[in-house]
Amino acid sequence: MIHSGDDQAEPQAKIVLRPIIGLTGGLPKSALEPIVIEAIRKHRYLREVAEMRHAEASQHPAPEGAPNAAMLAYVRAMIDVHAQQTVLSTLLDVLGHVPEMPAD
């Protein structure tokens, strides 16, 4: 059962995406590294979006017990961040290292 709140933190198994491991596990590192770099950039972008949504939600607090559109936009943005973090973590495990990030 999944529940939210301030329950004591319980150790959790690391989540990996087996389909990503299957798709990328046989690729040469030279082919996988650009995919990982793209995933890092996407994660950074999604994090920036979530930070903007958080700022917007903070400026427009919802009435107690009823989340407003700004808060729901923040929740959706954070779901995207966490989903991409799982993708990125799996890709980094397959690659075996954090690649050098080229200058933008």
UniProtKB/TrEMBL annotation:
Write down the Gene3D superfamilies for this protein, in alphabetical order.
HR1 repeat
Q: Which InterPro entries match?
A: Tscrpt_rep_TraM, Tscrpt_rep_TraM_sf
Q: Which domain of life is it from?
A: Bacteria
In the record, biological process GO terms are: negative regulation of DNA-templated transcription
List the Pfam families. Prok-TraM
Q: What is this protein called?
A: Transcriptional repressor TraM
Q: Which organism is it from?
A: Chelatococcus asaccharovorans
